[in-house]
Amino acid sequence: MLKLGITGGIGSGKTLVCSLFAQFGVPIYNADERAKWLVNNHPKIKADIITHFGESAFQNNTYNRAFMASVVFKDKEKLYALNDIIHPIVFADWKSFCDENSSVPLVIKEAAIMFETESKNTVDEIALVYSPLNLRLQRVMERDNLSEQEVMQKINNQMPEDEKLKLAKYIIYNDEQHSLIEQVLHLHKKIVK
Ligand code: ATP
Questions:
Q1: Of these four, 14, 15, 32, 167, which has the most CB atoms within 10 Å of its CB?
Q2: Which atom of ligand 1 is found nearest the CA of 174?
Q3: Ligand 1 centroid vs 48 CA: distance in angstroms?
Q4: What's the 141 CA to ligand 1 centre distance in angstroms?
Q5: Could you give the CA distance from residue 68 to residue 51 in angstroms, rounded to a whole number?
Q6: How many A from CA of 188 to the centre of ligand 1?
Q7: Whether residue 172 has its Cβ less than 6 Å from ligand 1
């Protein structure tokens, strides 16, 4: 079984590409969504976060995203500490997902941050969904109802796409010039021979 990582900057179209792979029956693990779920539902994550960051990290039994974002935004050490609590459990959860799907030839892990962390070592190969800046801006402003400045701030917090282009084994262009379906079909065929 091959574990394929699908990554790309915010608004590049990762989720859309993964939904196309899902049409071919490929099991998809959305690491960002799963991490959000685990933060609220995994007892060890919750306990460790409260020990490290205090009771304000949860409000009405729900992860206090705004508070935690304000804490880690200005302090890299705190961000690493939070990642050290969450990442090992997400990695174990991904491993269970792979074990549960061990009879299929391909599984996909979708994650916005992959080259930047150990996440790159939890997959066999990585495909980058690449989309030009203007399209990403437009799509995220529309999808999340944000200003251009707010989206640019998020984009500037991520690894530049030209660096990711050098690191990815496969590139899927979501640029309104190439057909997404044909690229996904081609890559699926290439991997699942
Ligand atoms: P994020 O990192 O924020 O989760 P993402 O990389 O998963 O983003 P998507 O959610 O797949 O990106 O796409 C962003 C938005 O742009 C969505 O609303 C999606 O429907 C739209 N979109 C992406 N690609 C296309 C396309 N080729 N044509 C039309 N709309 C698109």
A1: 14
A2: 27
A3: 33
A4: 11
A5: 13
A6: 20
A7: no
pTM for the full model? 0.93
Q: Which atom of ligand 1 is nearest to the CA of 16?
A: 11
Domains of the chain: 1-27+106-193 (3.40.50.300), 33-100 (3.40.50.300)
Which contacts of 88-91 are long-range, i.e. CB under 8 A and separated by 24 or more positions?
Answer: 89/38, 89/42, 89/44, 89/45, 90/31, 90/34, 90/35, 90/38, 91/118, 91/119, 91/122
Least Cα distance to 44 among 90, 109, 110 occurs for 90
Cα 19 to middle of ligand 1, angstroms: 11
Query: Could you read off the pLDDT tens digit of each residue along the chain, which spans 193 residues?
Result: 999 999 999 999 999 999 999 999 999 999 999 999 999 999 999 999 999 999 999 999 999 999 999 999 889 899 999 999 999 999 999 999 999 999 999 999 999 999 998 999 999 999 999 999 999 999 999 999 999 999 999 999 889 999 999 999 999 999 999 999 999 999 999 999 7
